[in-house]
Amino acid sequence: MKVCYYNHVGKVSGAEHVLFALLRCLPSEIEKTVISPASPEIEGFCSQQGISHFRVGELRARFTLNPLQLLRYSLSAIRSVFQVRRTIDGIAPDILHANSTRAGMIATLACAGRPTQVIWHAHDQFRPHPITRVVCLLLRSSKRNSVIAVSHSTADSLRRLFNEKDVQRIPIQVIHNGVNADAYGSMPRKVQALREELGLQQDGFTAAVVGQITRRKGQSEIVETFAKLCQSRGYDSAFRLLIVGSAVFEHDRDYLAALKMRVKKLGVEQNILFLGQRKDVPVILQSVRALISNSSSEPFGMVLLEACASRTPVIAASVDGVPELIDDGVSGLLYQYGDTARMYKLLEVLAADQAYGKRLGEAARERTSKEFTLQGFSRRVEEFYKFLLAGSAPKLSTISDPQMVGADADCEGAGAKI
Questions:
Q1: Which pTM was predicted?
Q2: Which residues contact 233 (CB under 8 A, 6 or more apart)?
């Protein structure tokens, strides 16, 4: 089986880390190649794993109704189609696995007239929009197209845009991402060193926000809410919020600057720390008593799974695929997006009751180790590949298959980095 993976950007964020984990875990019997723009991280990964890498230009395209921008983006898309098509002709893969919706659009056009199966790996929600209609038309245009959705919420958001005939015709398989729980095992010495480095008090309350700095992730509301918690405690330095991540894209840099200005204006600079991009996320997660997620849209939320593997209780906005990962009141705490008063209350609960937080964390770890393994994730993807090439009904094993539990040793090192 020859599978080629197409990533339309060179920058590495959540979807790229999922791709890295998948490539580490798929069996060597699958001949793997990667197509992407020039990228030290992607090319370095491929070199390390012995995977051939082929360069193409970066797709500069965003969904817009601005005619001038649309023209510019269309030209970029046309260039990408021809570059990917030329590369595919040289590789002749059985499957082209596109690692995003945009990549799926380019892959479909590039494989026109070819026998190659095209998988759109959907990491995003599909919202009603004129451009989304174009996306759906393109997805429906070929019998060779299929979809891997990262959550039932993502799959349902796509199905709602299709008629019943299309839903029956286009294979849409939900495959939750997995995590190597062993990479998030107890690391007391590293945790102690980090606490000393950041000046975190052993009996204090520290929470973290981990991920790309962007408006959709809702860091602004978290800053405002945590600042109120600090103010109610007389700006006690034992209360800390760690903001981990960077503004990956240029349009998010102003948002990051505004966040830092707001923290300064609120007088909580000693309480709220911006750590930037870090490679020690597992240690950070084990060093805090809560992870906060306030995304307006979160198809899956990989960092939530990493927190669960770290036994760190999660406080999260209950959007999109989040309830599929977090059992409210059992393995984490959920609130309706926009209800910052509820977010504040849940922070107070975990700050006041450390034992309760530990119970949530233990339950989260247990569920993650059974239901969201990397080995289970990669095996389901491999089975989907076989289904597409065989043309028979898929017999996809569940992620909680006992044979898969605790089987991530072969995928060691696949923990995400921010």
A1: 0.86
A2: 239
Q: What's the per-residue H, E or C state across 307-324? A: HHHCCCCEEEECCCCHHH
Starting at the earlier edge strand, list the strands of the sheet with 31-36: 52-55, 31-36, 2-6, 95-98, 117-122, 145-149, 172-174
Write the pLDDT tens digit of every residue in 365-409: 999 999 999 999 999 999 999 999 997 544 444 333 333 333 444
φ, ψ for residue 95, nearest 5 deg: -135, 135
Between CA 58 and CA 230 the distance in angstroms is: 44
Token digits of residue 150? 């990262």
Nearest to 172 by CA among 153, 199, 196: 153
pLDDT tens, position by position, 191-205:
999 999 999 988 899
Reading the block at residue 403, the tokens are: 């044979």
Q: How distant is the alpha carbon of residue 386 from its chain centre?
A: 25
Point out the least confidently predicted range of 65-69, 284-288, 379-383: 65-69
CATH numbers and ranges of domains, the chain: 2-179+373-411 (3.40.50.2000), 181-371 (3.40.50.2000)
Higher pLDDT residue, 105 or 403? 105
Residues constituting the chain = 418
Please report which helix (H) or strand (E) contains residue 104, including its range. helix 101-110
